[in-house]
Amino acid sequence: MSLYTEYMDEIQNRKQELGLNPKPIDSEALLSEIIGQIKDTGHAHRADSLNFFIYNTLPGTTSAAGVKAKFLKEIILGESVVEEITSTFAFELLSHMKGGPSIEVLLDLALSDNTDVSAPAADVLKTQVFLYEADTERLEVAFKAGNAIAKDILESYAQAEFFTKLPEIEEKVDVVTYIAGEGDISTDLLSPGNQAHSRADRELHGKCMITPEAQQEIVELQKKHPNAKVMLIAEKGTMGVGSSRMSGVNNVALWAGKQASPYVPFINIAPVVAGTNGISPIFLTTVGVTGGIGLDLQNWVKKTDENGNNVTDANGDPVLEEAYSVATGTVLTIDTKEKKLYNGDKELVDVSSAFTPQKVEFMKAGGSYAVVFGKKLQTFAAETLGVEAPAVYAASKEISHENQGLTAVEKIFNNNSVGVASKTALHAGSDVRVKVNIVGSQDTTGPMTSQELEAMAASVISPIVDGAYQSGCHTASVWDSKAQANIPKLMAFMNKFGLITARDPKGVYHSMTDVIHKVLNDITIDDRAIIIGGDSHTRMSKGVAFGADSGTVALALATGEAAMPIPESVKVTFKGRMKGHMDFRDVVHSTQAQMLKQFSGENVFQGRVIEVHIGTLMADQAFTFTDWTAEMKAKASICISNDETLIKSIELAKSRIQIMINKGMENDAKTLQGLIDLADKRIEEINSGTNPALAPDDAAKYYAEVVVDLDQINEPMIADPDVNNEDVSKRYTHDVIRPVSFYNDKPVDLGFVGSCMVHKGDMKIIAQMLRNLEAKNGAITFNAPLVVAPPTYNIVDELKAEGDWDILAKYAGFEFDDEKPKTAARTKYENIMYLERPGCNLCMGNQEKAEPGDTVIATSTRLFQGRVVADTSEKKGESLLGSTPLVVLSTVLGRFPTIEEYTAAVDGIDLTAFTPLEEELTTKFSAEKAVPVKVVDAN
Q1: pLDDT on residue 930
Q2: If 0-12 CB within 10 Å is exposed, 13-18 middle and 19+ buried, where does residue 305 land?
Q3: What residues have CB less than 8 Å from 428, skipping those under 6 apart?
Q4: Who contacts 567 (Cβ-Cβ below 8 Å, separation ≥6)?
Q5: Distance CA 555, CA 466 (A)
Q6: Is 800 helix (H, G, I), strand (E, B) or coil?
Q7: Burial letters for 487-515: b for 16+ Cβ neighbours within 10 Å, e otherwise?
Q8: Rounded to an integer, what distance in angstroms lies between the CA atom of residue 710 and that of residue 766?
Q9: Which residues are CB-contacts of 90 (< 8 A; sequence separation ≥ 6)?
Q10: Residues of 550-569 as b/e, b for ≥16 C-beta within 10 angstroms?
Q11: Mapping DSSP to helix (H, G, I), strand (E, B) and coil, where does residue 415 land?
């Protein structure tokens, strides 16, 4: 059977079973067969083959794109004649292929002696921005050899005509509102975790957005208002919390955006999204990738009394009142020039934050990638020509305040800045290009990152990236047919691209399903590093880490850079004494609760960096805090450690990187050894005093300062989804923090210890509790299932070496077996302990789930509706979050313990303790030494 026949069968099945169009072609072999049928003018499938070739072939560096570009070159040169594809049309098709093989073909034609094709090829090249070193080197060599066409192209690039000749954005954009949900909208609603396997198949994945009914309502709104864009809204909430989710933005764009190219199917851009409380920072970055618009509506405001004081409800929460309506079907107008939102002639709200000069450039260029690559290309061309590049793009915002010190994040951004004009240190609000040190790609967004890399024609990791890792943790629980189809292909691509991969395509080392955040935390050496990762919980306890969409991850891998404003910071310090029966997780939850109380319900963490002065808590344990900051709606988090603690953390990281080397995970570029070398250098800098541990200046300015009083924490603290709150908008936030006594005798249906929120110490706590229970009762009975998933294999190995794994295995009714991994998700649970393989497990919600309607107590971070546990018609599923000892005891009892039961159960157990430092972790500000250390701009 021919590949084409197989493709036709797939098309038929796809249509009958799923109601979908043909899947876009990325295979060289299939497209070669299709081209053969096009050349055969009498072929029965010639018409369909032409359609597939023109409209259904993926661009960039896919193997199909290489074949397509080569055939178009033959047509342009007259070596092949296709009546339906003229030379002019062939050039147009090449112009939509973005880069890679198409650029190679265009350069071949432009730099040739054939004047009939060189000029039109040059005209197309002038519109392209996705050029890499191999491409620009060809232009530079040709220019220096006196090639006039090369000079013409470079002069166009130096003027950035690929950007300046684009049409400006519309001055007025009509939108029709659609309330996608009330309260915070998780990206799970837009792209559910349990559908992660289909994200690379954009049309198929689009079917999972919200509900089929919602999709139809959007279609009906479009029919009724053909001249308006549908704007998805989080009413009385924030849009896109929980994750960056490029797939979520892709889905919104698929239903309510516009097609990026008529020759590339199901890739849509420029959606419009909004929220009463704006857009989650990481999700807003993703919106920018597509050139979309994200609005902060501010349509619900705090109600005040006649004295201007906030009116509160019975729970002490501020009462909100509607400033203006955005009910579904309301037609509004965004004035992009005035930067205001109107209902007819009535001004509703200022939306200038959505139309900064940089964001407008993204909209004009069709997305942020084109701007990043365009700037690099303009710089290259100007330097090659020996001219000064004109100021085409909006000037970078460089803010410097005299006699003001730097926060920790400001120091990191200044240290890693690229192409900064300022001679003085930059402060929050500045827009900066920065070098990225560490990049992480996870396995459910990885297939999309691969697509993005292919689309931007990247073929190898940027040499300025210190290290990058491709995880296998989100598909660790169940090695089903979907994982078996997607993951090996992903690992092979990323391994070839230059990443350290969890699975070895060659089968040399044991497959690793370690949680990506824990691995990134280990391979991040420098406390001044910038980390980009394909997950909202990319929050390292060394350096500053930003969760990002799959596209931004791809951009960081390809260029070694990222561009963003320097965020404001909120300083968190501690006072008092942590009680012996409390776990550090309780401190983490109390931080959220005390912050909200200190600022009358205002979340001052939202959109900012939390600078937590952790002092003596090592990176493994401190990660519990930084990880949680994603749920605090913070943009990122930074740990301030003393010198001694930082050295210990780096030494631990070194040992774990060495284990990766010993297991055979090193690549040809010796990336892992390079990280160990960097670690040795950093330790020497600290020991010698030449560059102590990162600390803010004593004259740094913060948006707010939060002091957490440890004396107030008397009971285990639980984050509650509050599923029965009468105000729908207040359900499933992470703001409801309650003591365990609130849940007196509440039944527990399942417990989960795992995900990125736990470390080796948590596993040892379970072992200690089992030993105590065994000594006290002689036997251990679980009255509710307990699922335990260690975060990494390193931790499992260490527990085995230290004797703790034996007690876990002894009382486990199920222990993972890598030789026989599960091929189907568990749907029912017995009252036993399940020792699952390292990975995300229940926290991810894409494979394993609790039984619908269960009340789950978990160490994870996810309490979104339907994520860990689905609802039933009789009962809402609850995912309550707490510490490891609380989870373990609750499953033994089958209910939440009393404080007396809990205190007795943890007596003598070594919990994750924390003692605040008495001294300030700051450096003395000196205006004379405030000049930033800048990375040399290689472009």
Answers
A1: 55
A2: exposed
A3: 399, 407, 409, 410, 565, 566, 567, 568, 569, 701
A4: 409, 428, 607, 608, 609, 635, 636
A5: 15
A6: helix
A7: beebbbbbbebbbbbbbbeeeebebbbbb
A8: 24
A9: 72, 75, 76
A10: bbbbbbbbbbbbbbbbbbbb
A11: helix
Q: How far apart are CA 735 and CA 721, in angstroms?
A: 9
> What is the tens place of the pLDDT at every residue in 846-872?
889 999 999 999 999 888 888 899 999
Residues of the chain with pLDDT under 70: 1, 244, 927-939
Predicted confidence (pLDDT) per residue in 812-841, tens digit: 999 999 989 999 999 899 999 999 999 988
Question: Nearest-CA neighbor of 825 among 442, 471, 481, 444?
Answer: 481
pLDDT given for residue 244 in this prediction: 67
Which residues are 546's β-sheet partners? Answer: 532
Q: Do the Cβ atoms of 515 and 475 come closer than 8 Å? A: no
Q: Using DSSP bridges, classify how beta strands 264-269 and 272-275 pair: parallel, antiparallel or unpaired.
A: unpaired
Q: How far apart are alpha carbons 221 and 203 in whole angstroms? A: 20
SS3 793: helix
CA 481 to chain CA centroid, nearest Å: 25
User: For 101-171, where are the alpha helices, taking DSSP H only?
Assistant: 101-110, 115-125, 133-144, 148-158, 161-164
Closest CA to 795 of 767, 825, 831: 767
Residue 707: its H or E element = strand 704-709
Six-digit token pair at 20? 């979908």
Q: Hey, what are 125's tokens? A: 């090249």
**Residues with Cβ within 8 Å of residue 281, at least 6 apart in sequence:** 607, 633, 635
Give, for 239, the enclosing helix (H) or strand (E): strand 239-241
Q: Which residues contact 265 (CB under 8 A, 6 or more apart)?
A: 21, 24, 55, 56, 203
In sign, the C-alpha dihedral spanning 86, 90, 91, 95 is positive
Maximum distance among all Cα pairs of the chain, rounded to whole angstroms: 90
CA angle 323, 328, 333 (to 5 degrees): 65
| β-pairing verdict for 561-565 and 431-435 | antiparallel
Q: 842 near 858, Cβ under 8 Å? A: yes
CB atoms within 10 A of CB 880: 25
Q: What is the DSSP letter of 228?
A: S
d(CA 485, CA 863): 30
Q: Is 890 helix (H, G, I), strand (E, B) or coil?
A: helix
